[in-house]
Amino acid sequence: MISKEENILFAAEELFAEKGFEGTSTREIAKAANVNISMISYYFGSKEKLYEKLVEYRMSEGQFFSKDILERTDLNEWEKIEKIVDQFAGRVKTQKCFYRIMQREQLHTKTPQIVEFLKQTKMGFISMYSKILESGIEKGIFTKNPPIYLLHSTVSGTLFYGSNAIEMYKEFLNNKDSDEVFEEQFFSELNKHIKHILKDLLGYEENK
After folding, report:
1. Residue 35: alpha-carbon gap to chain centroid
2. Mapping DSSP to helix (H, G, I), strand (E, B) and coil, where does residue 162 land?
3. How far apart are CA 105 and CA 100, in angstroms?
4. Among 46, 51, 104, 111, which one has the highest count of C-beta atoms within 10 angstroms of its own C-beta?
5. How many CA atoms lie less than 13 Å away from 135 in the CB half-sphere?
6. How far is the CA of 49 from the CAs of 1, 26, 91, 124, 205, in angstroms?
7. How far is residue 131 from each of residues 46, 145, 174, measured CA to CA in Å?
8. DSSP string computed for 28-81
9. What is the largest CA-CA distance in the chain?
């Protein structure tokens, strides 16, 4: 069961993703969440605060990377990279609305909190890749040392572009499966594709 506050957040998230912040009214959010408009003021104070709370909510929810993966001793460096890609791709797949909002924000944001969130998210990924790559090269697991900041751009750029174009790909392939079935297949292939690219960039040989 989700709380009333979360119900409003999720309804707003879908509308922000579809119409943008400016194009979404509090009245529309209240209608989508099936609550009285006064509830938005009660829980959040304003549309701006609701927007900030949504980012904060997803940000705190997303603290599933970093230390957990970096500190695991049962995985080698390549397996840690695979885990990061799996989890990141899973979030992009299940939270399309939020990531659509964030992509728009990268181009147009003026909200200091969101600017900082985007910066810290990217820095977190770059730091993770850097530590894993350094350790992997030291152990001879990786034989190449690509620019670490471009490594994250490769992963995130491929994921975002692919997920945004999924309907076009379905049409191009003349795929008759349901959207749900095609999406599962698509994200599975996208995930494998990213890992193939990373293997080449890092100089990782599976059966070495």
Report:
1. 29
2. helix
3. 9
4. 51
5. 16
6. 24, 12, 24, 25, 49
7. 41, 12, 43
8. HHHHHHTS-HHHHHHHTSSHHHHHHHHHHHHHHHTTTSTHHHHT-SSS-HHHHH
9. 63
Q: What is the pLDDT of residues 61-97, one digit of tens each?
A: 655 555 678 888 999 999 999 999 998 898 888 888 8
Whether residue 186 contacts residue 159, with contact meaning beta carbons closer than 8 Å, is answered with no
Which candidate, 146, 151, 150, places its Cα nearest to that of 81? 151
How far lies 179's CA from each of 168, 183, 193, in Å?
A: 12, 6, 20
- Its sign, for the CA torsion 38, 32, 5, 116, is negative
For residues 132 and 70, the answer to whether their CB atoms sit within 8 Å is yes
Residues of the chain falling short of pLDDT 70: 1, 60-67, 109-110, 207-208
The tokens for 181 are 């079935």
For residue 161, the number of C-alpha atoms closer than 13 Å in the C-beta half-sphere is 7
Hey, what's the torsion of the CAs at 34, 36, 37, 41, to 10 degrees? -110
Buried b (16+ CB within 10 A) or exposed e, 120-151: ebeeebbebbeebbeebbeeebbeeebebeeb
Tokens 């003021």 sit on residue: 41
* DSSP 8-state secondary structure symbol assigned to residue 10: H
- Residue for token pair 């193939």: 196
